[in-house]
Design a protein that fits this description.
Structural class: mainly alpha
Number of strands: 0
Largest sheet: none
Shape: globular
Number of helices: 6
Oligomer: single chain
Order of helices and strands: HHHHHH
Radius of gyration: 16 Å
Distance between the termini: 34 Å
Strand content: under 5%
C-alpha cells in the first residue's frame, strides 16, 4: 500500500511498478508487495527514508543495474544473495565461503 510519507514521484513509481507486475501475471497482492518494496528501497538508497539497512545502502540501484542480476547468464546471483540463501538453509561455514563455494553449497 502507498505510504503517506511518499512523494508524488514515489506514488507514480509505485503505481507504474504495480501495473507492470500485474501485466506480468502477478496477483494484486503480490504486485502491491513488489511495488512497495521497490519504492521503499529506492527511497532508502536516495536518503529519503529514516532508516535503511547497510546492504540496501551498498547495493547498486535498480535503474543503474539495468537487469544485470536476472538470476541467469554468466554472473548469476551476487555473493550476498547466495549467502542469504545459505543462511536460510542453515549451511555451516557460509561466512568463510566465496561466491563459487556458496553457489555449490546451495545447489546452484
Amino acid at each position: 500500500m502507498p505510504q503517506a510519507a511518499w512523494s508524488a514521484k514515489r506514488e507514480r513509481q509505485y503505481q507504474h511498478i504495480k501495473d507492470s507486475a500485474k501485466k506480468r501475471g502477478k496477483s494484486e497482492d503480490r504486485a502491491e508487495e513488489i511495488a512497495a518494496r521497490t519504492v521503499n528501497k529506492e527511497r532508502a538508497q536516495h536518503g529519503e527514508a529514516k532508516t535503511a539497512s547497510a546492504k540496501t545502502l551498498r547495493d547498486t540501484p535498480a535503474p543503474v543495474r539495468g537487469g544485470r542480476r536476472s538470476h541467469s547468464g554468466a554472473q548469476g546471483r551476487t555473493r550476498e544473495q547466495l549467502y542469504e540463501e545459505a543462511r536460510k538453509m542453515g549451511i555451516a561455514g557460509r561466512s568463510k565461503m566465496n561466491k563459487a563455494q556458496l553457489a555449490k553449497a546451495v545447489g546452484h
